[in-house]
Amino acid sequence: MSHIHRIQWFDQQIRNACYPNSNILAEQFEISRRQAQRDIEYMAESLRAPLRYVASQRGYMYEDNSFVLPHLYITDEEQRVLKYLAYRYSHYDYENGQTIRRVGGLLERFTDQPQQPGEFMLPVFEVDARRLQVIGLLEQAIQTRRVVHILCRKQPDHPRELYLCPLKLSHRLEEDYVVAAVEGNSRTELFNLTEIQQLKLTDRYFAADEEFSVAPPGQNKQLKPFTARIRLSGTPADSSWGGYTIRSTDGDVYEIEFYDTDAFLGQLFSSEWTGILSPKWLKEKVRIRCQKLMNLLNEQESRSDH
Fold first, then answer.
1. Is 115:89 a contact under the CB 8 Å cutoff?
2. pLDDT (tens digit, 9 = 90+) per residue, 74-130?
3. Residues of the chain with CATH 2.30.30
């Protein structure tokens, strides 16, 4: 449940003369008492709610019943942008760093109030839509402890396909990183988000301990890759195709190695090529996926005609 819903619920409890407090709020939404108290402080300090604690009732009331909450609704896209800016501001470590990091904390808790002019200017960060999506997926994976599949290029000629157990996001020297362990390996590494070309959540989970022993037997990074023979419409600029290792075999025909079939299907649907020569099962998967899409489009057109 979001911060917005908790505030709206707390406001309604006050209006119903229920005298809510941090304990009641914490129990209602299964959050910590400390987080509940921060919500109440946010109402008082940022939303200017005229809260007064009534000791005899052990809860809060409004000193002015004419108070109404400001408009709290924002779209999902706006929430993603705010979350990204909160992340960047929270890791800012330059001029006015302490004040700006507090701004990051406020954004993280959510506010749609306009920034008040002060004695300093907030730094401007470019909002990269692709980076925003990667960070969003990683935050989801970290929270739910999901294994992610990535295509990573630390070196131009050596793209890697990995399964990672992401632990936390990090920002240093103007670069964003994820601290993660390769599935089946207890050693953690820093992965630069700019080097992650593709990222997908898997249906596997890892344990919340230091072992990270989550790779099922025969399904870790030692798997033998599949090899597809694809006829491309042009000559690749280097030895990879969208992050996948390729080898030229005969003119415009290339052998391409991959581990995750669904991720590779995504590459096929987003890139230009003129033929899939092998394997047959891959051609069949592409055909079935295309047929399903065509059926959906035909059904949609049929419904619109009626």
1. no
2. 666 666 666 777 776 666 555 555 666 666 666 565 544 444 444 444 455 555 667
3. 135-205
- What distance in Å separates the CA atoms of residue 147 and residue 181, rounded to the nearest whole number? 10
pLDDT digits (tens, 9 = 90+) for 184-205: 777 888 888 888 888 888 888 8
Tell me phi and psi for residue 202, to 5 degrees: -95, 180
Share the mean pLDDT of the chain. Answer: 77
> CATH 1.10.10: which residues of the chain?
3-62
Fold of 3-62: Arc Repressor Mutant, subunit A (1.10.10)
SS3 225: coil
> Which pLDDT tens digit goes with each residue over 210-262?
554 334 433 444 457 788 999 988 777 666 677 677 888 888 888 888 877 77
Q: Which residues contact 185 (CB under 8 A, 6 or more apart)?
A: 212, 221
Give CA 139 to chain center in angstroms: 4
pTM exceeding 0.85: no
CA–CA separation, 71 vs 66, rounded Å? 15
Q: What is the pLDDT of residue 111?
A: 44
Q: CB count, 10 Å around CB of 299?
A: 10
**3-class SS letters over 5-61:** HHHHHHHHHHHCCCCCCHHHHHHHHCCCHHHHHHHHHHHHHCCCCCEEEECCCCEEE
Distance between CA atoms of residues 49 and 68, nearest Å: 8
What DSSP character marks residue 115?
P
Decide: 199 and 160 in contact? Cβ < 8 Å: no
Domain covering 135-205 in this structure, CATH number: 2.30.30
pLDDT of residue 55: 92
Q: Which one, of 114, 280, 258, 130, lies nearest residue 196 by Cα? A: 130
